[in-house]
Write a structure and sequence with these properties.
By secondary structure, the chain is of the alpha/beta class. The protein is built from ten helices and twelve strands. The N terminus is likely disordered.
Length: 351
Amino acid sequence: MRRISRLTRVAVGVASLALAATACGGTSSEGGSSKESTAKGDLGLAIAYDIGGKGDQSFNDAAYAGLQKAEKEFGYKTADIEPTEGETDADKEQRLSTLARQGYNPVIGVGFAYGPAMTAVAEKYPDTTFGIVDSVVEGKNVASLVFAEEQASYLAGVAAAKATKTGVVGFVGGVDIPLIHKFGAGFEQGVKATDSKVKVLSQYLTQTAEEGGFSSPDKGKAAAEGQIEKKADVVYQAAGLSGQGVIEAAAKAKVWAIGVDSDQYEQEALAGYKDFILTSALKDVGGSVYTLAKSVKDDKPLTGTQVFDLKVEGVGLSDSNPKMAEIKGLTDAVAKAEEGIIDGSITVKTE
């Protein structure tokens, strides 16, 4: 599992991705009088967080790690802005516009919810490079940073199937949307490919993000407790801040939890539960943030759709918990599955 552990240790080390070869030149500054411009190069990277904000020990914190790496390496000013409860697309649009107008470049919206706002704002600031995580937005100066979450989730499913003793495992998704379906689909496929007899329980916390699916640890805890009552002894969560409740419930019941996005075994805020965090399906959001910042710093800003998959180490599975190696066949099974995904002999479903 050498490839996997390297991704774990270098959480934002994706600067060498082959996607850099697709970088475009400087963004166009041409446009009508209705378009606004910024003082190019005055400031550095800015990120606007998704629901749950900084401190989720997962998705948003991974983005912040990328910002910290860029700030340290490039020695420039950065900004990170929290979302507000019940905010509208207009609120997001104003936030992105303010950052661009202040001279930050690039400006990154962390999460698919920034899609409509990004579409509206990018055209107004053609000299600014924008990035959006987990969504595709068309625009000459927009980089869409998307991930093969289903591949990391497949590996998590392999690990879960090897770790379960009851023959029942669970998946808790934050919101019932296509993005989170990718996590669930990959996980179930990985479980069934490893042991078709293992039962997979799946639950989505809410239908919309506004209902708190990504920001309610109590909802995550209740869902996990329900699955554990049904004999699940491994529970995988893709639920943002709500996932902390899943991990808490698993630790309390002394069953395995599988984290998401960041290596949650290593998260200080989750240290009290780490003995029960088997592994985490990694998604190098920080690496994508850093890579976009570096491309702008090098005056070769990335644009278009940039896919971070297992082949370029944009996703993976952590092996920080030494107990993984103690579970018979787990390490070898994960390594074999990883090889199959990379060489194309395994195609992972997204739905």
